[in-house]
Write a structure and sequence with these properties.
It contains four helices and no strands. It has helices at residues 11-18, 24-38, 44-54, 58-76. 0% of the residues are buried.
Length: 83
């Protein structure tokens, strides 16, 4: 037996329903800081250094995010993630 439930809501409605905190203000500060830091970047290596330093949990958080994005890309293209 398979039961499928589809919920049609905005991310804000889902966050509120699940009782998660509203972190939009903190996210805005983080994005602004990252954007200001990136304005002086002159090379890809320098960009990666800034991103690693500013990312939550430093290099570990950046690697986890990269893995998450890679898995999403594989799933979206129809490939299976084998990691």
């Amino acid at each position: 037996m398979k039961i499928t439930i589809e919920v049609d809501c905005t991310p804000e409605e889902a966050r509120s329903f699940m009782g998660l905190p509203d972190v939009s203000a903190a996210n805005n500060v983080y994005v602004d800081t990252l954007a200001k830091a990136m304005q002086g970047v002159s090379s890809p290596d320098q960009l990666q250094q800034y991103a690693a330093a500013l990312a939550p949990m430093g290099q570990v958080g950046l690697k986890l995010f990269q893995n998450f994005v890679d898995a999403g890309m594989k799933t979206g293209s129809g490939s299976r993630a084998t990691d």
